């Protein structure tokens, strides 16, 4: 998905986001003062680095242009520029939501549309 940035969430966090209207902050988001996002090319590394044991996750896509000046590109893992969002990331801005599944840690995820 060109022109998109992505937030990976546990299913419970997505349920909370839908109920509250905004993506809840992860512990890393709180510690760093911004919402951590990834590009499509960075997703696999993000999944390996931060969700090695997860069997089910939700990938939420946002259009870059819709996030405005609150979206900043800053060096992170391996010096790569990562998208960081400074503000409240509203669920109404979600462009696409996909559930990610796997049966065992270490296996690749498979996708299914419609995470609610």
Percent range of helical residues: 10-25%
CATH class: Alpha Beta
Distance between the termini: 20 Å
CATH homologous superfamily identity = Protein of unknown function DUF952
Q: What oligomerization state is this entry in?
A: single chain
Strands across the major sheet, in which order? 1-3-6-7
CATH topology: ADP-ribosylation fold
Rg from alpha-carbon coordinates: 13 Å
Low-confidence stretches: none
Structural class: alpha+beta
Average pLDDT number? 93
The tally of strands reads 7
Number of domains: 1
Largest sheet: 4 strands, antiparallel
List the total number of helices: 3
Name the CATH architecture. Alpha-Beta Barrel
Question: How would you describe this structure to a colleague?
Answer:
This protein has a single domain (4-107), classed as Protein of unknown function DUF952 (ADP-ribosylation fold). It is built from 3 helices and 7 strands. The mean pLDDT is 93. It is globular. It has a 4-stranded antiparallel β-sheet. The chain has a 3-stranded antiparallel β-sheet with strand order 2-5-4. The chain is of the alpha+beta class and 116 residues long.
């Amino acid at each position: 998905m060109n022109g998109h940035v992505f937030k990976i969430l546990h299913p419970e966090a997505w349920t909370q986001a839908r109920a509250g209207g905004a993506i809840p902050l992860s512990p890393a988001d709180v510690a760093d003062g911004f919402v951590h996002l990834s590009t499509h090319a960075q997703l696999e590394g993000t999944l390996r680095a931060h969700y090695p044991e997860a069997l089910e996750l939700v990938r939420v896509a946002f259009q870059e242009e819709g996030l405005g000046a609150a979206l900043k590109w800053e060096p992170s893992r391996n010096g790569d520029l990562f998208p960081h969002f400074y503000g409240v990331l509203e669920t109404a801005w979600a462009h696409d939501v996909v559930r990610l599944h796997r049966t065992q840690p270490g296996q690749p995820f498979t996708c299914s549309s419609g995470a609610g």
